[in-house]
Amino acid sequence: MGSLGFGQTAAACSVSVRLDLERANDVGPRAAGKSWVFTPIQNTRKLPDITFKESEMPDVGTPSLDQLRVFLTVVETGSFTAAGRRLSRATSAVSYTIANLEMQLGIALFDREGTRKPVLTEAGTTVLSKARAVSGGIDDLRASVKGLLGGLEAEVTLVVDVMLPTSRLVDAVQAFEAEFPTVTLRLHVEALGAVAQLAIGRIFLSRQTER
User: Fold this and answer.
1) CA distance 18 to 141
2) Would the CA dihedral through 144, 145, 147, 151 be positive or negative?
3) Fewest CB within a 10 Å sphere: which of 70, 88, 130, 189?
4) Whole-angstrom Cα Rg for the chain
């Protein structure tokens, strides 16, 4: 039976193995056995060193609501002067507010070179959509709180019969939303029997909650 022998111990690094075949006691057509010798060969090729550096995100300041309002007003009016008139502020105060906002964000919002009116940069256009969303959210929040202080419900459930004409239902829903824009309306369209059962269930649940 053949025997396996290693000429040296393999190192911890990358090693390739070369096989040297020697026939031991190869006498005559009926050789008694064979000896296999494995000689480890040190791999001299070196892999290039690859260094991965963590990319650090720049620190961005937090703009105030007033800064966003001024920014939106400049965009809507088309100039710092017109924005100042709408906000009852000096033009220099508007320009100063925008400059501070740009410094906090670390980007230029307007291109002021070669034009008499401020033109939004590509980054400024992206910030504009976000600023409008923030401003709209604040307006919605204030309107909702004002409605709650005035005694309005936060949510109203309306159950109507399936036979009610669609045009009448659409008109009613649109009128409700126009009158109470901050109140959530949940609409259920059911058959006549289901309408009564749902209404009774709502009344029962309301009374249980009040207890």
Assistant:
1) 76
2) positive
3) 88
4) 40
